[in-house]
Amino acid sequence: MHIKRIVIQGFKTYKNTTIIDDISPGHNVVVGRNGSGKSNFFAAIRFVLSDQYTRMSKEERQGLIHDGSGTILSAYVEIVFDNTDGRFAISKDEVIIRRTIGLKKDDYSLDHKSSTRTDIMQLLENAGFSKSNPYYIVPQGRINSLTNAKDFERLNLLKEVAGAKVFENKLKESEKEMQKTKSQRDKIDEMLKFIHERLADLDSEKDELKNFQELEKDKKIYEFILYDRELNECTTAIEEIDGDYQDAVGNSHQFIQELEKRENSISELNASIENIKHQIKILGIDEAEKTSLLQEIQRQIYEKSADLNEIKEHFDENKKSLSRNQKQLESIEIKLKNSEKDLEIRRPKIESLKLEERALESEISVLRTKQNILYSKQGRYSKFSSKEQRDNWITEQIEETQTYQANSSLAVSTLQDEISSQQNDLKQILEQVDDVQDSINGPTAQAEIQDLETKISDLRRKYAAENDERKYLWREETRSKAILDSLDEEVRQAERQVKQTMDRQQSSGLDSVKRITERLGLDGVYGPLGELISVNQKYRAAVEVVAGNSLFHVVVDSDQTASIIMDELVREKSGRVTFIPLNRINPKDVSYPSSSDCVPLIKKIGFDPEIQNAVKQVFGKTIVCVNLERGYELSREFKLNAITLDGDKADKKGVLTGGYQDFRKSRLESMKYKQDKNKEVFSQEKKLLEVKSSIAKKDQEILVINNEISKLSTEFETLLASKKPLKSKLSSILNDKFRIQDNIKLKEEKIVKIKETLTTLETKLEELNREKSSDFIEGLSNDEKNDLNGLIEQTSRLESKLNGISDLLISEESELGGIEIELNEVLRPRLQEILKNKSSTQLNEDLTIQELVEEIENLQEKYQSIDVSLAQLRSDYDTKKKELKKLQDSLDKADDQQRRLIKTLENYQRTSEKNLSRRSLLSKSRDDIQRKIRELGALPEQAFDNDFENKSSDQLLKKLNKVTKSLEKFSHVNRKALEQYLNFTKQRDGLVERRKELDNSEESIDELISVLISRKEDAIQNTFSQVSKAFSEVFEKLVPKGIGKLVMQTRSAESQIARDALDEDLDEDEQEALDGEETDNYTGISIQVSFNSKNDEQQKIEQLSGGQKSLCAIALILAIQKSDPAPFYLFDEIDANLDAQYRTAVANLIHELSSDAQFICTTFRPEMLQVANKFFGVMFNNKISTVSEIVKSDALGFVEGQQQRS
Question: Cα-flanking dihedrals φ and ψ of residue 1174, to 5°?
């Protein structure tokens, strides 16, 4: 066995995880600078393997944990052993031991499993790590202490190695036991002396005591007879009272049964009254709701009727208005016809007048042209001096006129084109007018409006119907909430009743379980057992007595669920609860009796199969019997518990329990009442949720309808609004129409004027050409003058006629314009407005009246239905009131009967209490008499003779007084003399026997001490022989030329003189150590050596140099190891004080020994490195140590560098 690997983390300077792997099973050397952590490395191994680091304080543990940058809260050291040789009693090739330390912990583990320190130390000791030989680990300073040790200290070391300390401890214990035995024997001797003296005194008192006892016997006889007679009298009186009491109990039992029946009846009446009150409350809620609804419907009928009347009045007004409008319509239509006829007449006339006017204007224009030509001609001749000059001017005029004529013809053509274009525009405008007018007032537009109005009206009716349904649902919601509030109060009352049947902690715990279950969403909590079972009224008392508080035990699916809830209960400090985890209980099947006068209680209990084990656990071993006597027999025979229907119980151990029980506060009934109310609440909450769901659904439907109404209303408004742009457009189009028509008319008139100008120009050209071809004369010719006069006259006449025609045309056109304005701006718009208002007003009012009539009819039908329902409700309310009064009267009557029964029972109770009080006094007297009889002790046979039957109590009392007076003479007598004599004799015999036992024990202890001393001396001698031989061998190997031996110093007369002389030089502790060895034959071990010759006189160790002393100490340590070998050795700088030649010898010897055991050494010297198998270097950086494997040359280089620096 050897160490394969060491892992250190957080221990002293080893902050980080340091792994020293592949450690050689032979010779290993660790090198490093002073302070680098070599000693801490060895300390880490000792931390795991030795008992040095035990019972440490917090500060000492803190000192072992790395103290540097960063917080290290724990440290551990792990050692991996090679166990291929099986030295550890573990069937593994590797054994891992770890020790972990923290501020508040110190733990061991074996193969990564937790273990105790005792187990680890035992394992190590069994593997060869002996506590009596601590030298397999040699830390710094151990060599020096051994070097300077005195002879008796080396002897103590040898004793430790030999195990002599064990014998010494046993010797000390044996000596203490010997002292204890002597002390007990001395006390026994003193007691025996006292007892012998006391027996002598008591022997003289026995005769006097004999006479006294004769009188005492007579006294006992008389006292017994008197006591016995008094006892019989008390017993007879008690029996009479018991008989009366049994009669009273029998009578009261009948009254109690009647009382229980009354209680049940009252309970049923109370339940019925509560039920009737609940129904009355609901009827009251319904009545108030329906009354409110009737008032609301009446209000709606009133409002709707008022609206209907108002609409009808408005409708009548509209009818009158329509009648007036109809007359206006007829009048307008007549006017339209007349105006249109008038237009038809006037337009041709105006056209004719215009033609005539234009013809006259044209003719006048020609005449004036001719006049102007003649006037021009008359004036021109004064300007020209010759014909040529005149002709030139005429030619210019002709050219100008022709140019003007061509331009005018072009203008006519342009105007005609424009007229043609505008006529096309006019045609399109007229088509637009028809389209727009059709869009505004056409059948399709009107139908669209009516369709939207109809849809809106239908939706409003549907909205009203849906809203009525929603109001009904609201009323149902209010009603359900009121009922639910009432039920909640009843549930709270039921919970209070249940809580009254249990203690406060249990109640708080059950409430907390319910809250925790809901909060954590636990599925495995079934609830209290009492709520999970159902029991017939007949078996309720039996079930309650059997279950007891188990009714409130909470059934859960597993202990894990129970643990979760219990942790929460502890955390919240909220009550106590007992759980029944189904996975942890498995009740055995029970064999029940087949008798007809009993039945298993569990068969009378209803429960879910899922909780069967819980029910069997509580009720499975109980049967219900017809009476307690039969139940007692069956319970003893079948090892079951038996119970009667009244709750009297006989358990399988033979204990009977029974008596009156008040079931007015029945747990099961309270829990069932609570369950029923919770079911009602659940049902009502479900109904309320359904109503709320219906309300939400109805709200959505109404919202959809409302949105649809809004949408259609928006469409309607949009449609109406869309008419306004059309009307504006129509107005604009009509304006364009009139404008184009006016333009066409103006252009036509302009064409006419241009044509007239062209005619005038044509005439002018003819006259100019004629003049040009005529002779040049000054002034006009006569014909021309005549023509001019004729022209003037004709022009004047035609102008006069033209004026007349123009005036007539103006008058006609003015009248025509007025007619057209009246037609277009008055009559036709008014006609359209009347027609539109007539249709829309009539339609809207018809629809509104129809809707209102239907709504009023529906409201009236609803009113009648609700009124009938309300009448029925009031009838039911009155019926329930009468029923409640009847039940209340019955309850009052039952209460009165109950009070009378209770009063009767109280009378029985008072009588029974008086009898029981008297019986108690009699029982007390009887007990006192019986106690006095018992105090008389053993009675003589004469006390039971019949000789005293004929004697009265007075006679016996006189004899008793006489005997008592006689006994007064013996007041000084020791009444317990005989008893004391016997007791002392018994004590004497016991003490004599005990003294013999102590003598035997002393002999055994003496023998044990002798054996222990012998064994101790043998162990010391054997160990000394082995160590002495090994020392000589080891010393010879270390110093081949020398010789060394150990010398055992024994106690002798001369040595005692030397010892006395030595005492003067010893300090107090050394003196105490020597005093403890006074019984030993050995006083010390000295070392005698010679370094130069095997034949020279040997020197004692005190005469050697320091290096030689260290070598002797090392030889002694290695000798001890050879006699008591360990699996491996840890040597910390053992060669520090040796000379070079001896360091080499020590190194070679350790290397030789490493073939059988593992050595791990530290050194600053090269000699050890020359022979080692493996090398490890300890580095220290930033206050952190690390260990790594190095090669031999590095190790030697490091040691040489250290020597040069030193």
Answer: -135, 155
What is the distance between the alpha carbons of residues 227 and 233, in angstroms, rounded to a whole number? 10
**693-746 tens-digit pLDDT:** 998 898 898 888 888 888 888 887 777 777 667 667 767 777 777 778 778 878
**Residue-level length of the chain:** 1206
Instruction: Please report which helix (H) or strand (E) contains residue 649, including its range.
Output: strand 649-650
In a domain, 3, yes or no: yes
Dist CA 272 CA 223 (whole Å): 69
Residue type, 505: Q
Contact 747, 419 (CB under 8 A): yes
Q: In whole angstroms, what is the distance from residue 859 CA to residue 541 CA?
A: 59
Residue 532 lies in a domain: yes
Find the helix packing angle between 151-162 and 1068-1075, rounded to 10°.
50
Residue 553 within a domain: yes
Token couple for 1070: 């050394």
Mean of all residue pLDDT scores within the chain: 78
Task: Over range 578-585, report the average pLDDT.
Answer: 91
Single-letter residue type at 765: L
Tokens of 64: 């072992």
* Contact predicate 1189/31, CB 8 Å: no
Residue ranges with strand state E in 588-640: 598-600, 605-607, 622-625
Q: Tell me how far apart the alpha carbons of residues 190 and 169 are, in angstroms, rounded to a whole number.
A: 32
Token pair 């090398």: residue: 1175
Backbone phi, psi, residue 576, to 5°: -125, 140
Question: Taking each helix axis from N to C terminus, what angle separates 667-773 and 387-441, rounded to the nearest 10 degrees?
Answer: 160
Rounded distance between C-alpha atoms, residue 372 and residue 533, angstroms: 139
Compute the CA torsion angle 447, 453, 456, 457 (nearest 10 deg): -120
Q: Provide the token pair at 686.
A: 């479900």
Measured between alpha carbons, how far is 193 from 623 in angstroms, rounded to an integer? 70
Tell me how far the alpha carbon of residue 1082 is from its chain's centroid: 78
What CATH number should be reported for the domain holding residue 511?
3.30.70.1620
Please say which residue of 592, 625, 660 terminates a domain: 660
Listed residues 660, 680, 704: the one ending a domain: 660
The pairing of strands 649-650 and 656-657 is: antiparallel
Give 7's strand partners. Answer: 19, 78
Instruction: Please report the sign of the dihedral spanned by the C-alpha atoms of residue 1113, residue 1114, residue 1116, residue 1117.
Output: positive
Cα distance from N-terminal residue to C-terminal residue, the chain: 38
Please give the sequence-ordered ranges of beta strands (E in DSSP) within 56-126, or none if there are none: 74-82, 94-102, 106-110, 113-115
* Domain around 560: 501-660
Residue 1196 is assigned to a structural domain of this protein? yes
pLDDT digits (tens, 9 = 90+) for 1063-1086: 545 555 555 444 444 446 778 888
DSSP state of 11: B
Domain count, the chain: 2
pLDDT: is 412 or 1123 the higher one? 412
CATH number at residue 1188: 3.40.50.300
DSSP 654: S
